[in-house]
Amino acid sequence: MNFAFLRNSLRIRLLAGTLVWIVISILVAGWGLGQLFHQHVEAQFDVELKNHLDQLTAQLILDEQNLAQVRLLPSDPRLNKPLSGLYWQIDRISAADEQPDKAVLRSRSLWDETLTVPADTPADGEIHQHRIEGPQGVALRVVERTVTIDTHSLRLMVAANESLMTEPIEDFKGHLWMALGILGMGLTLAALMQVFVGLAPLRNMQNALGRVRHGDARNMEGTFPNEIMPLVNEFNTVLAQNAEVVERARTQAGNLAHALKTPLSVLANAANAPEKRDDDLARLVASQVDTVRKQVDYHLSRAQAAASVQVPGMRTAVEPVIRGLVRVMQRVYADRNLEFAVVSADVTLVFRGEEQDLQEMLGNLIDNASKWANSRIEIQARAEQERLTISVDDDGKGIVPDKRDTVLQRGVRVDQQVSGSGLGLAIVDDLARMYGGQLTLADSPLGGLRASLSLPGAD
Questions:
Q1: Average pLDDT in the 330-334 region?
Q2: CA of 126: how far to CAs of 29, 97, 117, 212, in Å?
Q3: Boundaries of every domain in the chain
Q4: Which of 129, 164, 180, 406 has its CA at a distance of 20 to 30 angstroms from the CA of residue 353?
Q5: pLDDT category of residue 421 using cuts at 50, 70 and 90
Q6: CA-to-CA distance for 375 and 361, rounded, in angstroms?
Q7: Do 266 and 292 form a contact (C-beta atoms < 8 A)?
């Protein structure tokens, strides 16, 4: 289990905190309600016993023989049902030893049983409570009172099975916990819905950022809650500033290029003047001016590419770029009668970057292949696991394996007889790396060189 994910997940943290609070609340509520109901039932149970005791006391008299009599028996039918769980009993306390005579009178529900309560001496009329073992070993709850009539002391008691009190309590607690369990599940479901609905705007933000990253949009678009909208606005501001920085960099790069081209052109014209053609200094100046031009073009291309790579949302369709470059190369190398074949270029393929950079890379590769090909050049573009692979094949003489890494270095040429600066493949390799891609050279099925460009694709 990825504990770091659980610890860093906002959804998990919100759910965990909510669920812990729900569980604690339900446990406290269940315990508290259970205790309140227990106290209520217990109090009502004791009140009922005391009511029976008061009825028994009110009807107690002594007859002519000074024997205890109950004029009107309590009306509860359970007192007439044997072993029903509700009982009463009257003991007489003799004046001599204060030891009671057992069961002077008792309810029919006791049948042939008697109640035995702990010996104590409550004041006249005072009520005591006891817990004793009754008929059939059942626990009884007893209330008793001592009553003195003339000189005769009588001990009156009413008892009931504790199960008459505990069973409703246990039944209530069972239903209570079931109800609280259902409530807990409902609250848990509500918490899940709240978290997922509450975090939905963040998922919408993620989708909006994905559209920006894939190039479907230049800004985060959509309707977001007021709490999130300031963040969206700030992010869109950053995107706008980045785009402005890129545009400014391009403008400055273009201005620098124009500023350098004019003096370089002056120097080149001066060095190439007819009267200076045989001058060693003029030839040196012309050579160095040409080198400076190439280096300026190379570094300006790198600067522009580095700026554009940092801007999200760039998308370029691949197929139109390939077709356009092929038409250009057909005109440039028309005298060689080369055959350009676009073997596969899916119209849905998209490069996640600037069109100008893609043209720069593919233009150099196709131009290089055109210089070395005998008669045929093939271009193929395909998508492979979120990567864009474009290969350019020619039927020329190729490059031996031990020199392929060397030609990717700036200014290196494998054959001085073919015109070129030795910068084309180096520029392609640098641009590809800036985009997180790679240029590889290998043998071509046509017999020459295959240059494969791997670049990030866009969904």
A1: 88
A2: 37, 20, 15, 87
A3: 59-161, 239-307, 316-456
A4: 406
A5: very low
A6: 22
A7: no
Q: Cβ neighbours of residue 328 under 8 Å, at least 6 residues apart?
A: 363
Q: Answer whether 215's CB lies under 8 Å from 350's CB.
A: yes
Q: Output phi, psi for 158, to 5 deg.
A: -125, 135
* Residue recorded with tokens 């199960």: 163
The reported pLDDT for the residue numbered 179 is 94
What confidence tens digit (pLDDT) does each residue in 58-72 have?
Answer: 888 887 777 788 888
pTM of model > 0.85: no
Which of 334, 410, 325 lies closest to 360, judged by CA?
Answer: 325
Answer yes or no: are the C-beta atoms of 162 and 140 closer than 8 Å. Answer: yes
Structure tokens at 140: 């009884």
Task: Indicate the angle between helix axes 229-271 and 280-309, nearest 10 degrees.
Answer: 170
What are the backbone dihedrals phi and psi of residue 94, each rounded to the nearest 5 degrees, phi first?
Answer: -75, 150
Give residue 417's pLDDT band: very low, low, confident or very high (50, 70, 90): very low
Closest Cα to residue 424, out of 297, 243, 289? 297
Q: Which residue has the tokens 């233009």?
A: 363
User: What pLDDT, in 10s, does the model give residues 388-401?
Assistant: 889 999 998 888 88
Tokens of 366: 């196709």
* More confident of the two residues 358 and 284: 358
Indicate the fold that domain 316-456 takes in CATH: Heat Shock Protein 90 (3.30.565)
Hey, is 101 helix, strand or coil? strand
Burial class of 303 by CB neighbour count within 10 A (0 to 12, 13 to 18, 19+): middle
Q: Which two tokens stand for residue 81?
A: 């049902």
Phi/psi at 175 (5° precision): -65, -35
At 104 the pLDDT is 82
Q: What percent of the chain has pLDDT over 90?
A: 22
Do 142 and 131 contact (CB within 8 A), yes or no? yes
As beta bridge partners, residue 376 has: 339
Angle at 451 between CA 445 and CA 453, to 5 degrees: 125
